[in-house]
Amino acid sequence: MTVRMAGEAALICAWVVALCASLAVLFIGEVLGQMPCLLCWYQRAFMFPLAIILGLGLWWRDTRIGRYGVVLSLGGGAIALWHVGLYAGIIPEPIQPCTATGPSCTDDNQVIVGVPIPLLSLLGFALTAILSALSLKDPGHEP
């Protein structure tokens, strides 16, 4: 496998992760009827464009699109990391975005295969960042 093909494969994988994450949160919200908390909304603001931008980059065969994937993934990942810290109680916060009276991702029904949704989000952003960065390792890549 050539380096160019490996870069394209990494970009395809990054797009699949972003697309699956976007479809999963739409399913949770629209089909299951579970409202996202404030931090979940902020993370969606980074994940939804990832699926679109990476998909368009693949369609147009733009070898540089991975850099946008890295930036969006780092932004969403930072919010997800903060969310995981709040969820785990590592970061003390007087005003929690997830409350018992409003939308909450701290309930037992917000755990998928034993993993809380904020942690899944962090893993999704980390994976798209790594794969997007790997797609840029093409030696023929233009700066």
Strand order of the largest sheet: 1-2
- Regions with little confidence, pLDDT below 50 for 5+ residues: none
The CATH class, by name, is: Mainly Alpha
Query: Any idea how many domains?
Result: 1
- Helix count equals 4
Report the structural category: mainly alpha
Strand content: under 5%
Organism: Loktanella atrilutea
Keywords: Chaperone, Disulfide bond, Electron transport, Membrane, Oxidoreductase, Redox-active center, Transmembrane, Transmembrane helix, Transport
GO molecular function, one term: protein-disulfide reductase activity
Protein name: Disulfide bond formation protein DsbB
Write up this protein:
It is built from four helices and two strands. The protein is mainly α. The protein has one domain: Bromodomain-like (Up-down Bundle), CATH 1.20.1550. A hairpin with a 2-residue loop joins strand 1 and strand 2 (115-116). Helix 1 (3-31) packs antiparallel against helix 2 and helix 1 (3-31) runs antiparallel to helix 4 (117-134). The model has no long low-confidence stretch (mean pLDDT 85).
Short characterization:
The protein has 143 residues and is mainly alpha-helical.
